[in-house]
Amino acid sequence: MVFELVVVDVLNRFLGYYVVNLDTSQLSLGIWKGDVALKNLEVKENALSQLDVPFKVKVGHIGNLKLRIPWKNLYTQPFEAVLEDIYLLIVPSSRIKYDPLKEEKQLLEAKQQELKRIEETKQKVVDQEQQREEKQDTFTEKLVTQIIKNLQVKISNIHIRYEDDITNREKPLSFGISLQNLSMQTTDQYWVPYLQDETEKLVRKLIRLDNLFAYWNVQSQMFYLNDYDKSLDNLKNGVVNEYIVPKGYDFVFQCYGAS
């Protein structure tokens, strides 16, 4: 099926760009089977390079990534995406120790991405010409629309933190966000979760957030000075839940419970 090829291609390119040493063959196999489960993924140091910002990822971790794709029942079952334990520690680029081999590898990857982008642009031009001669309401387009209608997303345990002890060495700062749970489901007009069929045009999505916090710490502890595992533990311990609010954080926004 064309759509299966599209899903494989998109996920391979997206995850391949952001994740260290991704086994694309295993990922593709899982997608074709309809059940992808990846654990303990490390986010690349240069994952922010496309944003053209002077920051790098000191610690980047995704504990679990799960995709459930009901290829045989795409019109009657939801496409589910689950992400668990997402932790990012971002620092100024100058705080990352220069590694010539890593830098060379990253430059090569960047060149390969640029070449790929150029080829994709050329292909898009060709595809656009072909699409002018085809009907716009194709089977694949209908299928994509149906999947988006019934897409279910669940994300848990997120902590994204930025640290800076360069701008003001006397008062190192850190700021970030912490979120325990985020979920998104399709609902009916009464906000009760259910599956829409292809005839329905209006899509309603119910988004739920549990324990969302934002903080800004001055004269802050610098996690990045620790090794990778210790820094990761500190990020994990910074997630607020219904039972524990971690100490040492000056919160500027707090949302307890569900919203």
TrEMBL record:
One of its GO terms (biological process) is protein targeting to vacuole. Signal peptide: none annotated. The keyword Cytoplasm does not apply. Residues 101-138 form a coiled coil. It holds the Pfam family VPS13_N. Keywords: Coiled coil, Transport. InterPro entries: VPS13, VPS13_N. Residues 2-254 form the Chorein N-terminal domain. The keyword Transport applies. PANTHER family: INTERMEMBRANE LIPID TRANSFER PROTEIN VPS13A, VACUOLAR PROTEIN SORTING-ASSOCIATED PROTEIN VPS13. This is Chorein N-terminal domain-containing protein. It comes from Marmota monax (Woodchuck).
